[in-house]
Amino acid sequence: MDAQVAATPFYFAAPAERRRVKLPFIDRIWRVRGALPLEAPLSPAEAFDRLDDLFRAEGTTREIDGDTLTFAKKDPLAQDRMAIYDRGTLRVAPAEGGAELRYDMHSPSLLFCFALPFLFLAIAWLLKESRNPAFVFAGIFATLYVAGRILEPRLIRAAFRKRLADEDAAAETSAG
């Protein structure tokens, strides 16, 4: 490939040559990523065993391949603690001073709450009378997005931390 063509930002290559476009600021809208240091030395199998109850909900499929757990949800129930996420990966990786659980999960709910204020603002712009309800709904969904964006990473991290530190819960999960 010619160096000048490769440097062009809109180079259209054959599918095998295409590189994945990285949009880090847009990607953050609907993804929750993080890493949690493992306090006790756990193998990936032990760590995933302790987290197993989070992935037992109806409609959840999971696959463990070595140090990586991949999950997907179809029509999660409201009682599912991880209903906000439709798919993701968890990986136990070596880190400084031990190992850590790295997670990357997709949340269509966050994307929905991010997009709806724009829809309601467009409706308000089109209406000539009574724009207030559209502004109210735009505000509600904007607030839901901000609250979800702040709370969801903290809540999932706390759930992972609790289950990874709790040996008794892991024993009950294995026995049950």
Report what the structure shows.
- The chain has 176 residues and is α+β, with helices and mostly antiparallel strands.
- 44% of the residues lie in helices and 21% in strands.
- The protein has 6 helices and 5 strands.
- The chain has helices at residues 3-7, 24-27, 44-50, 108-126, 132-165, 167-175, and strands at residues 31-37, 60-65, 68-73, 87-95, 98-106.
- It has a 5-stranded antiparallel sheet with strand order 1-5-4-3-2, with helices on one face.
- A hairpin with a 2-residue loop joins strand 4 (87-95) and strand 5 (98-106).
- The longest helix is centred in the last third of the chain and has 34 residues, at 132-165.
- It is elongated.
- 16% of the residues are buried.
Concise synopsis of the structure shown:
This protein is α+β, with helices and mostly antiparallel strands and 176 residues long. It has helices at residues 3-7, 24-27, 44-50, 108-126, 132-165, 167-175, and strands at 31-37, 60-65, 68-73, 87-95, 98-106.
Number of strands: 5
Structural class category: alpha+beta
Spatially, the strands of the biggest sheet line up as 1-5-4-3-2
CA-based shape: elongated
With helices defined by DSSP (H or I, 4 residues minimum), what is the helix count?
Answer: 6
Distance between the termini: 58 Å
**Rounded Rg:** 21 Å
Percent helix range: 40-55%
Return the average pLDDT rounded to an integer. Answer: 83
The ordered string of helix (H) and strand (E) elements is: HHEHEEEEHHH
Poorly predicted runs are 1-18
Largest sheet: 5 strands, antiparallel
Query: Strand share of the residues?
Result: 15-25%
